[in-house]
Known about the structure:
The protein has 301 residues and is an alpha/beta fold. The protein has ten helices and ten strands.
Amino acid sequence: MARNFQDAPSGDPRYPERKPDWLKVRLPSGKNYVQLRDLMRSKGLHTVCEEARCPNIAECWSNSTATFMILGDTCTRSCAFCAVTTGRPLAVDPFEPGKVARAVKQMGLSHVVVTSVDRDDLPDGGSTLFAQTIRAIRDVNPSARVEVLIPDFKGDAAALATVLEARPHILNHNVETVPRLYPSVRPQAKYPRSLELLRRARALGQGVLVKSGMMLGLGEEHEEIIATLADLRSAGTDIVTIGQYLRPSRRHHPLVRYYSPEEFAEYRRLAMAMGFGHVESGPLVRSSYHAHAQVPATTPG
């Protein structure tokens, strides 16, 4: 469970309480949504769409796309922005790669996103299961593009190499926020360690697209956003996502401000000028939002 935070005094303009109109989304519904939800339940699978309370779940699930979350639904870390449960995870399910692969086949997906909770309790951080899942998906659906959103594996280069050897199309690792905010937002992570992972992915993953993302609204300054984007590009990141932080509960990090669609558009313009191959920037953007559309126009490096 995330650490407790003091709620802001009522009326404090630094901590907005009402969502602006551009952040209002419809409730999940529709035939495809129900079928996908039931499919996940029947196979005992988890999605980050549900666990992280993604605002795009209605849109993505209605279009029969989802982000599979392997290695269970309990995280060993307690990031202050995240709604995923923190605690002692259960044992790894060795049959999970096959279950995910069969679900992909049943759904007829052409672009698959696989992520996980942090598993600092495992010697390899869960990298072996990531690799097995990539290969299992390819076995049943060779034409599907596979994107993985991985943890930092505590800086273990061998764990990263294990994932890259399975040849995902996209290797994604999010820095989430600017370096100054790491102690309060990601206390068990390290900004330099995340950047080093991206650099290694660029060096080792020939032909693999390298991707990262960050949230705005946690208290970062404009200059810090620009500096972080520059760091990501310098590390060899091809694709970057920029979205609005939405506070999951009062136990989580306070929301400092909402950014307007126009501000997100400006950050997209600035990031593209830095040389990123693709930038997805908007209030509702999350790591996997429009992921299927990010590949064709992007060249690794």
